[in-house]
Design a protein that fits this description.
Blueprint (H helix, E strand, L loop, with lengths): L1 H7 L13 H5 L4 H10 L2 E4 L7 E4 L2 H8 L5 E2 L28 H9 L5 H20 L7 E2 H18 L7 H11 L7 H25 L8 H6 L9 H32 L1 H9 L4 H12 L4 E6 L3 E3 L2 E3 L4 E5 H4 L3 H4 L29 H17 L2 E5 L4 E2 L8 E3 L1 E6 L1
Parallel strand pairs: 2-8
Antiparallel strand pairs: 1-2, 3-5, 4-12, 5-8, 6-7, 9-12, 10-11
Helix pairs in contact: 6-7, 6-16, 7-11, 8-9, 8-11, 9-11, 11-13, 11-16, 13-16
Length: about 425
């Protein structure tokens, strides 16, 4: 149990290579321990942590190996985060990213049509219009919070469209996403229960939307796609909630934190910002580089289904492995010695693992790239430079890698 694991930490010294510690991400001090792991122990066993015993997989090659063997390294056996399910405390809410074949295959196939190249073309004009409206509403020469005003607003609008969700209630999606994606909540029984209440609230709201669409002709939104599919039309209530949470967190936290990471990264590397401002043709590559550099989900978890070996380490059946995308995207053997730097014209930026690899690669990757790319294009049209005016507040957790607040001011270049 997570509560037992937390108490156990009082008995043991903190492992400096335990990269699940929330303060590393809150304080942005995760770079050093991951650099040590990559250099000395790319597959490393942490015996004692707030999430129990786990293996850290921190370099590019073994992560690709694990992701390429989904039957050996299960997403379903233990879930996709380091936080364990606790009997009698949690309610299982299955989601297709945390299912193995063949269930995963059928359910993923159901929602995939919402993210095809033709759908991206269909949605691009609307995404651009909404991006223009948000950017044109921003104050110049006056401090505001980029996270709430731009990143959250744009991604929440997109989610509302994908779900055909009532526009006036769209910020509920942000609220539910924040509660669903915060794995630090497992450390408190009270917060677990509160989270469960909010997930039930989310499920009840969406159940009403579902009921309104039953028996109606299919429309392009995700709920209608589920209703009209063999793989998902008969989900029980908990699986319905689980898949909703997956799509909300996947569509909200990842894109919104990339949009914030873009602003933070360009502020930290003014030479790269100047390069991008001088040549907007770099935007498509800069999108991939920003996603690599930010890595909006730090890890995914897999559970070994049999005894095996990974880079010389003996992995036992039942062992849990954290695939640290945030570290693999800094792997010097793949991205060079400047991997910690945002380089807008990095030649192999698209090789990043921020979307995962293999059968579980992010189904909405194209949409995320489209949203971030259009944001960058519209900023360039306005010659908009976003300058940080104070310290940022980061998410204090090892799963969602992102920002709570980011005070900025706009200037022209």
């Amino acid at each position: 149990m997570a509560t037992l694991a937390t108490n156990a930490l009082e008995t043991f010294d903190v492992d400096p290579l335990d990269v699940s510690r929330a303060e590393l991400y809150r304080d942005d001090t995760w770079h050093e321990p991951f650099a040590k792991l990559r250099a000395t122990a790319p597959v490393y066993k942490t015996e004692h942590s707030a999430y129990g015993t786990y293996w850290s997989v921190s370099t590019y090659k073994p992560i690709v190996e694990v992701e390429s063997l989904p039957d050996l390294y299960s997403s379903e056996a233990g879930g996709i985060t380091l936080a364990d399910f606790i009997e009698d405390s949690d309610v299982r809410m299955p989601m297709f990213i945390a299912r193995d074949r063949p269930v995963h295959t059928g359910q993923r196939r159901t929602v995939s049509p919402a993210f095809t190249p033709s759908e991206m073309v269909r949605m691009s004009a609307d995404i651009r219009r909404r991006t223009e409206e948000v950017l044109d509403s921003l104050p110049w020469g006056k401090e505001f919070d980029w996270v709430d005003t731009v990143s959250i607003e744009l991604t929440t609008q997109m989610l509302a469209i994908l779900f055909d969700f009532p526009w006036e209630d769209r910020r509920k999606l942000t609220f539910w996403s924040d509660w669903a994606g915060d794995i630090e909540l497992v450390k408190s029984e009270e917060l677990r229960k509160q989270r469960l209440e909010y997930m039930y609230e989310c499920g009840a709201y969406f159940q009403n939307l579902w009921n309104q669409k039953v028996g109606k002709p299919q429309t392009p939104d995700l709920i209608s796609m589920m209703i009209h599919s063999d793989a998902m039309s008969h989900m029980d209530h908990f699986e319905f909630i689980g898949n909703l949470i997956l799509l909300i967190v996947g569509g909200n936290d990842t894109t919104r934190n990339t949009m914030s990471g873009l602003v933070y990264g360009l502020d930290q590397f003014p030479d790269e910002r100047a390069k991008l401002e001088a040549d907007p043709a770099l935007i498509p590559n800069a999108v991939s580089e920003t996603i690599r550099w930010q890595t909006p989900l730090s890890h995914m978890r897999r559970t070994a289904t049999a005894d095996t070996e990974l880079m010389g380490q003996e992995i036992k059946a039942g062992d849990k492995l954290a695939l640290w995308y945030i570290s693999a995207n800094r792997d010097e053997t793949v991205f060079g010695e400047d991997a910690d730097k945002l380089v807008v014209d990095r030649p192999n930026a698209r090789r990043h693992l921020a979307f995962g690899h293999g059968i579980h690669r992010c189904v909405g990757a194209r949409l995320a790239e489209l949203q971030v790319g259009i944001l960058m294009e519209e900023m360039a049209k306005r010659r908009m430079r976003v300058n940080l005016t104070g310290g940022v507040e980061r998410v204090s957790a090892c799963f969602v890698h992102g920002y709570r607040k980011m005070p900025v001011e706009l200037t022209k270049y």
